Amino acid sequence: MSVPDVAAGARPLARVHRGDLVESVHLGHVVVVGPDGAVRHAVGDPDVTVWPRSSLKPVQAVAMLGHGLDVAGADLALVCASHSGERAHLDVVRGLLAGAGLTEADLQNTPDWPLAPDAAWEWRAQGHGPASLTQNCSGKHAGMLATCRAAGWSTHDYLDPTHPLQQAVVAATVELTGAPVEHVTVDGCGAPLLSTTLVGLARAFGTVAAAARDGSAAGRVARAMATHPWHVGGTGRDVTAFMAAVPGLVAKDGADGVYAAGLPDGGAVALKVLDGSGRPRAVVLAAALALAGVDPALVAEAARTPVLGHGRPVGEVRATFGPDA
Amino acid sequence: MSVPDVAAGARPLARVHRGDLVESVHLGHVVVVGPDGAVRHAVGDPDVTVWPRSSLKPVQAVAMLGHGLDVAGADLALVCASHSGERAHLDVVRGLLAGAGLTEADLQNTPDWPLAPDAAWEWRAQGHGPASLTQNCSGKHAGMLATCRAAGWSTHDYLDPTHPLQQAVVAATVELTGAPVEHVTVDGCGAPLLSTTLVGLARAFGTVAAAARDGSAAGRVARAMATHPWHVGGTGRDVTAFMAAVPGLVAKDGADGVYAAGLPDGGAVALKVLDGSGRPRAVVLAAALALAGVDPALVAEAARTPVLGHGRPVGEVRATFGPDA
């Protein structure tokens, strides 16, 4: 097992224009797969090995549902979320825990402030510090704990890579991505982080999104996310705006420049920004979705990324590829 | 005048290791010049045209001193700063304005929160919103206003590119960088933003740092910055740590991945991270300084950039180049 080079084959994905210069350029990899899972378009290397970070959450949720987690709607969307830590997000997480006879004290994810500045302000103004509840992965961790309760597994060691819950996540990841899990480390939140390939990640999202009309675990995840996009992200988040704009879209952002999205027809896209920046992610996702057949007008607002001087646009972030590029 | 391509010739500068994978890679350009201004080392293209952003502030300050600004010490360091908005920074800015018979109301830089989260918290807890005073460039703007007063120039239009102050900044930039200013736009703070070349930026810093023992405007800037590194950045900022660690170093960070630093012998370095990320800047600056003769042990702590999983290091950001690479 050799160590892959994430830079090999990377291509420019987006340019940052300020005034009449290109100030910065983001390289990376993009893949677009059809409903049959075959690669339709690629920029860079579709087979690149990546840490999918939080973009794997819908897959983790499929594993949880397969082992007894019994939630739906906004509750399930929160399990798949990197939430902004707004008050209604926290209420749902508390409800998930209470439903399993658990409390915030059972969460083992890394304490952090809410992602949204206003939510962080409110949390601190209430006298709180960084907490597991407010960290953006708390819905996933609540779901993991609730799954352990349903399956009769121990909860104190649910983050151990050898725990049956984490082994179930590996199995679901291999099944949905069609790729082996060759590397494991620790994610920011403390959960095991599994490697996959970019095309494998896209295929998983295509499978999940296409299942929306059936009763499978994947279908339950797809319906929850597509129906409750605010719970998957939050106010002003582009992941929320994309799902609100495209009916049936199942999209998830991940740290260090990862994004994946599946369409109801089973087509899907995944991208990795080589430098890990979130800045070009929305623009690049919109360009990839256009290649997958989404009307660009639907996602133009979700993708808009102006570059400001004195508070006014003096440039913008533009994709290097797409149907019109 | 053709539009240059900032991506042309860019090379990997730093890799982000998480677990046993390279998660992300930052490309860009680095130049190291000797005391004579000649290029000693380069990674990527030393002649690349960049928006220097806030790294040009020491040069802007030289222009101000040349037209009557009469400040020194921490006051002058603040004029060269992208400060974190901590209380003592704000006090210095208020003092600069008062010394010129002006107030916060005369500042025209874009209102913003303090850069430092704790300072932003304190500012908001006092009932304030985003303000020109707390925006990281307020020292520069106070210096520009004070210069206008000293020179007998109007203050209401000091941000106009045709204002004599801004024309003086262009002249100082051309003189110190040895490169023409071929592009102009608006910086985030509202001041005119002048293009330069990476090697020109390095030469300007070498000239400024080498002047520290003379009475010139450049020498005054060098002494102020090297003696008051906290005022140039703030608590926990790497620009502050580098200057505190290396006697006589004159360093300045800039938005979108720019960094420049000059040494007392006139040697200097400048770098542009192609993707604009601040993440690899300290690591890349340390590697460049090592090529310029700085003992790596001096700056190891300033450059340390761990990658965390569950709050503990699971990787790090490492430069791809340097004396040992």
TrEMBL record, chains A, B:
Pfam families for this protein: Asparaginase_II (PF06089)
Protein name: Asparaginase
Organismal lineage: Bacteria, Bacillati, Actinomycetota, Actinomycetes, Micrococcales
